Structures are given as structure tokens and as C-alpha cells.
Amino acid sequence: MTSQVTRHVSALTCCLLSLLLTACWSKQAGFTGVSFPPTEQVDVSFQTSAVPSSCQGFAHLIISTDGPTSGLEIQEAMVREAGEKGANQILVGMAREQMGKRQGSFRFDYFGPKYPYPFPQGWMGWKFGFEQWNKAGPLLGFGLDSWGNPARHYDSSLMIQALFLRCPEK
After folding, report:
1. CA-to-CA distance for 148 and 168, rounded, in angstroms?
2. Are 71 and 150 within 8 A, CB to CB?
3. Most buried residue, 13, 25, 63, 135, by CB count within 10 Å?
4. Residue 30 gets which letter from DSSP?
5. For 38-68, how does the pLDDT look when each residue is reduced to its tens digit (9 = 90+)?
6. SS3 of 137, please?
7. CA 84 to CA 36: how far, in whole Å?
């Protein structure tokens, strides 16, 4: 009986250790930030002045794209992620090229905040993710002419700043 208990405890310990090690060395941690119920319609702005003042900022992130990719693929991935997290507005910041990097897929790295805040009163600007941001290549033009454009192609992976917002239903 004692040897059976010892075997079960050993097996359980092994399983728990495996889970812990997998979580520690995982390349992308699961999302643990603020979210709202999913949305169907997501609007985009490229200037802070275009974001309604009734909105709440709730997710600061850097999106790393796969390369090559198009403006349409970038739009679809960002809108899908925003809608899943409950955003109905995205503020898009600057974009940089990631020289020689191949993502293999889109990656969304979140940098807070802990609580939603009123926009623009609580907005502190693009002051997050500097360790990642500063390692990227040159700035690129990514705006309305690229957003959703299937003819606009990027051969390299991109790094794009974004803010997800929840606004009262329009």
C-alpha cells in the first residue's frame, strides 16, 4: 500500500513539475490583463484627437507581425485580437521594422495597465515596451494608406504600437 502511494505521489509531483517548467519557459504567456465582453465592430484611429473622449484605455500592447504580410492581414489580426479582448476602438501608434526576424505568426505583447482609465485624461503616451521597441529596426510608415490594404506588402516582420479602448456604444 505504501509503495502505491509513493508511486502516485511521485507521478503527481512529476506532472506538476512538468507544468511549472512549461509555464516558466513558454515563449508567450497567456493574456492576464483587463478585458471586456467580446465585440463585433472595432474602429481604428491613428491620432489621439480622433479617439472619442468617452472611451477607456485598457490594454497597451506591441504587435509583432509575421513577414511577409499585407496591410489587410495586419488589420484582420489586430481587429480580431481587439474584438476578442472587448475593444471597440484601436489607437495605432508607430511601426518599426524587425530586421532579419521571422515571427512565424502574429504576437501580441501586453504592457498593462492594471485598470481601465478615462481617455485622454489617463493616457500617458507610448511609454511602454521600450526594451522590445528599442531593439527593432527603422521606423516605417503604417497608417490609413496601409490599414486594410491588400496591395500594401511588408517583406519583414513589423512591430506596431497599439492601445485598445472600450467606448460607450456609438
Report:
1. 25
2. yes
3. 63
4. P
5. 999 999 999 999 999 999 999 999 999 988 8
6. coil
7. 8
